[in-house]
Amino acid sequence: MAHLDVAAYFYKSGTICARCLRDRIIPAWPIRRPGGATTENILDEYAKTLGFDRDRPAFSSYKFPHRMTYSELMDSDRCYVCRRKF
After folding, report:
1. Cβ atoms of 31 and 45 closer than 8 Å
2. 52 assigned to some structural domain
3. Range with the lowest mean pLDDT among 19-23, 52-56, 82-86?
4. Is the model's pLDDT at 10 over the cut of 80?
5. C-alpha Rg value of the chain to the nearest Å
6. What 3-state class would DSSP assign to 86?
7. What domain count does the chain have?
């Protein structure tokens, strides 16, 4: 894994894994989910509909998840939904 790969997301007030975000959070959003789309693809499309650039995270994590890299995580970090370590 590259050090700058997306390892997790910070959403609302906790860290969440890509699978939990895709399977448990995104389905509640008012967006179309193309079959086979990755979490990143879905987030890119939704950001476009909301009109902001995900590469310039000047938005609240309460409104949209922020990407987290492996270098931003601590050894003790876990997904707040499934409790798996990153």
Report:
1. yes
2. yes
3. 52-56
4. yes
5. 13
6. coil
7. 1
Which residues form the domain of 31? 6-72
Gap between the Cα atoms of 53 and 50, Å rounded: 9
Both tokens of 36, joined, read 């086979």
Secondary structure tally for the chain: helices H, strands E: 2, 3
28 in any annotated domain: yes
What global pTM score does this model have?
A: 0.82
Amino acid at 47: A
Counting every residue written for the chain, the total comes to 86
Tokens 């000047």, residue? Answer: 58
DSSP secondary structure code for residue 22 in this structure: I
pLDDT at residue 2 above 80?
no
Could you tell me if residue 83 is inside a domain?
Answer: no
Return the structure tokens found at 24.
């448990």
Residue 67, H or E segment: strand 66-69
- Residue 80 counted as domain residue: no
